[in-house]
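To close the section, here is one more complete example, presented without commentary so you can practise reading it yourself. The ligand is manganese (II) ion.
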Amino acid sequence: MWKLFVLSLLTPLAVSAATIKDMNSQKAPFKLPPLAYPTSAFEPVIDKATMDLHHGKHHQAYVDKLNEALGSAKPTLLEVLRATKNYPDAVRNNAGGHWNHSFFWTLLVPETKTTKLSKKLESDIVKTFGSLDEFKGQFEQKATGLFGSGWVWLIRAEDGSLKITTTANQDNPLMDIATEKGRPILGLDVWEHAYYLNYQNRRADYVKGFWKIVNWEQVSKYDSEK
Ligand code: MN
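Output:
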């Protein structure tokens, strides 16, 4: 019993319980999700000050502006993402901002923890990209090559294949307006607010650092979700 209690302190439930389904089905008014780790947990890859601002200010602002833009409407987050054409741009931008950041936080794990890809996802990555390193290289290229603010994704496309895609601003692959649609299983925020305090203009170093704190177990869970 005592051991179980200690274990529950060491294993943040929010991380293992995160599902795309839960993110999609949350209803307005939306709330800022708590982080499963202290904001210093990803040092030195992501510094505490960046995490504090990014989660507490930037993400909070997406949530607040989304609620404000929706007014009295009570759609689910997925309903909004699937119908951004029917809403003002403020809804598209802030709904994307809320979904993308909610997803992003769950992908991070302290560097001292080792997490593994599922056999299925690892073998699909190797089949698709040649090797895990080749996949990382292609992902890094997309991340550094993306002009301006946006996100780089690993998605399961509608035909089940794995693809690396990018979206501008706070768009994402679940949106009706996405040119490459699919289910995100990994995503990286390459807005300057995500790295500038620590890395200034060195986006490539931030992207390389990201691999040290990716929770591959969570990525695999997202991949296996139906
Ligand atoms: Mn961000």
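Once you have examined the tokens, check your reading against these statements. The pocket of manganese (II) ion is lined by residues 54, 58, 101, 189, 191, 193-194 (CB under 6 Å). The beta strands are 150-157, 162-168, 182-189.
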